[in-house]
Amino acid sequence: MSNLSITTKIIQQLSNNSGSVVPIAAKDTLSNCAITYIYNKEASKEDGRERAIEEFGTEALWIGGIPLLKKLFDKTVYKFFKADPDFDIRNLKKNAQGKLDKLEFLAKNAPDVKQKEVLENILKNENVQKLYKRLHVAKFITATAATLAGLSGLIVYKQKTTQKELEQKYKKKMELQNACNKEIKKSPVFDKFMGNKETSFKGGGISKFLSGFMYNPVMNMSILDGGITATRLAQGRKGERFEIGFKEGFQILFIYCLAEPIQKGLEKLSAKFLKTPIKNEYQLLSNDKLKELITSEGLKDSVETLVKFDDNKALEYVFKNQDNALVKMLKISGELPTIKGSDTIDSLAFIDTKKLKNAAKNISELAQSTAGKGDLDKYLSKVKNIKGASVIANILIGAAAIGILQPTLNIILRKKNNHGETINPAIKQLEKDMEQKFAFSGSKQVKPQ
Description:
Elements: H1 6-15, H2 22-42, H3 45-80, H4 101-108, H5 113-124, H6 126-186, H7 188-194, H8 200-203, H9 221-235, H10 241-257, H11 259-273, H12 282-285, H13 290-294, H14 299-308, H15 311-320, H16 325-333, H17 353-369, H18 376-417, H19 425-445
């Protein structure tokens, strides 16, 4: 179902915590802006710059690297082996008797000649089945490894830029200090005029820095994120590894572990206090045919029939009843995948019958809730709006936890463990090293006259 408004597409993607990177990208972008701002404001210019480079640079690789590389793999390697990258290898799962009954059914019921040829070729040839499995694994490993390599290089680049900035800062400081020392030796008037201003070269008051960067989407985030965490910890400098682990823990918790539970919690709150069921997908709730479909005769029987079937029977039911109101809603909601630009079931895609049944139950719950509602259009609009608000709330909760709560707690811990200092301990040590290096260098260059 492709003719969706931009708003519907965005909110639908933001609501998909298990299968879309859009909510991850949204949380990551919002939290990265907040993290960069807080470290610039509360810590130091160098700390803020490092956060900006690493957080937004990582996001570009994390969100954009894998899909780009996978697309390239599809266009080159898959094309070379004359394989169809749209085929989902989960359809190769065998039943208890060792038969590919699901693949057989899909091949028999393929909607067009092209899909039928692809599926029959895979079904008849065991070597082709192995090829698809190997291509899938190779694509995942290649994309993930290349992205991790890019991330490793980014962290090295971040650390080197900080070192270079501090070297330039203290080099200029010592050059100015040396020039002042020479003038002091030449002119007593200048010496009197300068007075205590020489102390300004010792303090090193650091100006605040603020910037923002943009992002790109990605897949398979949780596995890659584990590699990102390991890489960051391995390359972390002395004094900052705890902070890295602390931040990554928040990221994993609120992007992966709590995203769905928070959404389900918001849905339960809506059902309990607002008497409004919002479990259905946003793109179904915003569809202009929802009222007609949800009030169709026989919907309750259709749900009961689908739910009681086993996987094979459920699959057969949706293929044979594509004009049924329930099946139409499953297509609109996205649980029943369709060929792009049409409402025809896609035989190359993976059809999760468990999700179909859960979606059918959610549709039934919504249908039951409409009983006795006078203005049905107004009620369904309310359901849609509350669903949209819950999706946005979920994003903001995660972003606030990662981008505001986490760095604020970290700054508090820095103050406690470093005698009130808020600067990154690793950067502080680097500053001390630079100051000593150039102070020693300057003492060699400026000889007493």
